[in-house]
Design brief:
This protein has a 7-stranded mixed sheet, covered by helices on one side. Strands 3-2-1-4-5-6 form a 6-stranded parallel sheet, with helices on both faces. It is globular and about 50 Å long. The N and C termini lie far apart (66 Å). The N terminus is likely disordered. By secondary structure, it is α/β, with parallel strands linked by helices. Helices cover 38% and strands 21% of the residues. Helix 7 packs antiparallel against helix 11.
Length: 311
């Protein structure tokens, strides 16, 4: 009988340990992909430990990819995954243990995160963290003042390239990937080129000092000079293209497979770990340096490709 009681108690504890998550912004395909991985235990990509239970619709009328898709994604969350919707972020926060800030529009993140921080909820901020370097730094400042843990990362960081091409003797890296632009985001690279740029940082680590950017209508060529003398480069392709990476080691050159995209499972695993431990898998300082890198690239374009120091 004592064994049975302990077993039942263990099951109760296991059930209680499942984290309740809320999504803020249903205008990206990420929310339906995350819901399937977290809420569907029969999915081959299922990630245990958390479940999405609440959502705030959001949406941006002046971004076509938001306005045209937000209703469809919201309806799938409501009908297929039985997720409850709330009319404001503060009420959503009362029902959850952590928040996924998934609004596709980086401009709204600074305002939306204020209610999340007021509720003291740990938060994952989906790409783009913000639309400007100033907003990114203000988000970090407010979170630190509130004592609330946060992180933001591309799925590329935790995919096959990001996890198999990291070497202690890396001398330089070249990455490429899609880099379409979105006119409402002043920091152009934050919209989509963030993915190959974050892959570059995953493989090189922080420490960039100076950036140059050469722009054409079809692509960007961005080169970063690291303080230790290494060089890292990104090719951002328009409108869309494949992903890949080349790593220059001391005695060999290693190239990834060319692929169309990375899956989200590695990222979702890290998100669940973050909500369990409150420890971000990538430091806030590195995330802010990535934004300083993109800011320098923006200033370099404006100056006709002249090198720009990170601010």
């Amino acid at each position: 009988m004592r064994v049975l009681i302990l077993a039942v108690a263990g099951l109760c504890c296991a059930g209680a340990a499942e984290l309740r998550l809320g999504v803020v912004g249903t205008d990206t395909s990420h929310v339906t992909a995350f819901a399937k991985m977290l809420n569907d235990s029969t999915s081959p990509d299922y990630v245990p430990g958390a479940r999405i239970v609440a959502a705030y619709k959001g949406g941006s009328k002046d971004i076509e990819s938001s306005a045209s898709r937000v209703d469809g994604f919201a309806e799938e969350l409501r009908t297929k995954w039985k997720i409850e919707f709330y009319s404001d972020i503060a009420n959503l926060c009362r029902k959850v243990d952590g928040v996924l800030l998934t609004s596709v529009d980086g401009r709204v993140h600074l305002e939306q995160i204020k209610a999340i921080l007021a509720a003291k909820k740990p938060v994952f901020i989906d790409k783009p963290l913000a639309a400007t370097l100033e907003d990114a730094r203000e988000i970090a400042r407010l979170a630190q003042a509130a004592g609330v843990p946060w992180f933001s990362a591309s799925s590329m960081r935790f995919g096959e390239m990001g996890t198999t091409l990291k070497f202690p003797d890396t001398r330089g890296v070249f990455t490429w990937g899609p880099g379409p632009l979105e006119t409402h985001h002043a920091l152009e690279m934050s919209w989509y080129a963030i993915h190959p740029i974050e892959l570059l940082y995953t493989l090189m680590g922080p420490g960039c000092d100076e950036v140059t950017r050469l722009y054409t209508t079809d692509e960007d060529a961005i080169t970063g000079h690291w303080k230790d003398g290494r060089i890292g480069s990104v090719r951002a392709l328009r409108p869309y293209g494949t992903y890949g990476a080349v790593v220059f080691r001391q005695k060999e050159v290693v190239q990834s497979k060319v692929q169309s995209a990375e899956g989200y499972r590695g990222l979702v695993i890290e998100i669940v770990k973050f909500f369990e431990t409150k420890q971000p898998p990538v430091s806030n300082e590195e995330t802010l340096e990535i934004f300083a890198f993109m800011d320098a690239a923006q200033r370099s374009r404006a100056a006709g490709g002249a090198p720009m120091k990170l601010r």
